[in-house]
Write a structure and sequence with these properties.
Its cofactor is Mn(2+); Mg(2+). This protein is α+β, with helices and mostly antiparallel strands. The chain is 33% helix and 26% strand. The chain contains 15 helices and 22 strands. The strands form six sheets. Strands 3-2-1-4-5 form a five-stranded parallel sheet, with helices on both faces. Helix 1 packs parallel to helix 11 (294-300) and helix 6 (94-101) crosses helix 7 (103-112).
Length: 425
Amino acid sequence: MKVLVIGAGGREHALAWKISQSKRVDTVFVAPGNAGTGLDAENVDISATDAARLTAFAKKNEVGLTVVGPEAPLAAGMVDAFQSEGLKVFGPTKAAAELEASKVFCKNLLRHADVPTADFQTFPDAESAKTYLNDREDVPVVVKADGLAAGKGVIVCRTRTDALEAVEAIAGRREFGEAGAKLVIEERLVGQEVSVLAITDGQALVTLPPAQDHKPAYDRDRGPNTGGMGAYCPTPAITAELLEKIEADVLVPTIHHMKRKRRPMSGVLYAGLMMTKQGPRVLEYNVRFGDPECQPLLMRLRSDIVDLLEYTADRRLEELPPLEWDPRPSVCVVMASDGYPGKYETGFVIRGLDDAAKMPNVKVFHSGTASIDGSVVNAGGRVLSVTALGDTISQAKLNAYRAVKAIRWQGAWCRKDISDKALEM
């Protein structure tokens, strides 16, 4: 069969790489892809948001399954467009994708579904949010843009002054565009932040091994939030017993409530959780594979991912045999362009990719790259997701950073402490 992956990041490269390993697949297309997907699959020069051209391409090329990677096309109704043409597609509809596309919608759903989360208030504009902050006790809060902001629309604030500035940045200056048209202000939770991803067809549920993302830009979780500077899997922060509790108290109630709201969830339900002393609390939901969590997860997956994706799209997930996983942990280190998550320059030639590719138990997934005149250049903020397996988390980290050391371009940088949290638990 032929499979189409929509997107251009490290998540899509990992999906295309894993899908291409299936004995059931002849051709993997990636639209629009990047320099890395061009090596492991066939790139198609169509924007990830161009539903008309993508559905036409899928029909013309007899694509048997389409996988939508990023949040933006999901929120815009890409799955609905494919389904209306009778095409098989993995991912949530536009109505279900609002779980990620609107933090106001998500927080209200969590409240009504009785899913544990931080106390919160929602606001339609900057002025009402500022009034709320000035009228309450000066305590740490988190200010969130309602809409999609590429993982950067969340500002953690220690003081009222910080929070007022965050409100002005998001809803006043609209630094994240229309994502800041509405706001959520919630209590700041303390604990380890973890990612639990599950696959669901709206009925059955398959929970994947828990991972831990590293959102802040710099070591020791300092600096501004990013789309993710690295991840590792599994995380010792989640025991088997705790994972069962998360399924029962978080994932299952959410899926049932979405069904009751006539927005049945299909695809990936990704819970961003804070492990507090009172138990797990939902920070947010995503409705697609995390980036960079997808990369270390798929490095460990031994089962045929096409079966998982197709059974979900066909609403037959309960028939899927248990997934098989490599027992070794994996670590993913994101290499970024100088200046990210702020302004950065692109077009610098990346060297050492071949050397890194030769290293055992290593895969370099491309996130923001392009191929120009036979050379691979940086074309985004997050550029590469260097991912490695190891017998222990320490060994996986060592393998990943050895590969990182082999790669260079002007201004390249990364966090040096990805997965260290696992050793501190």
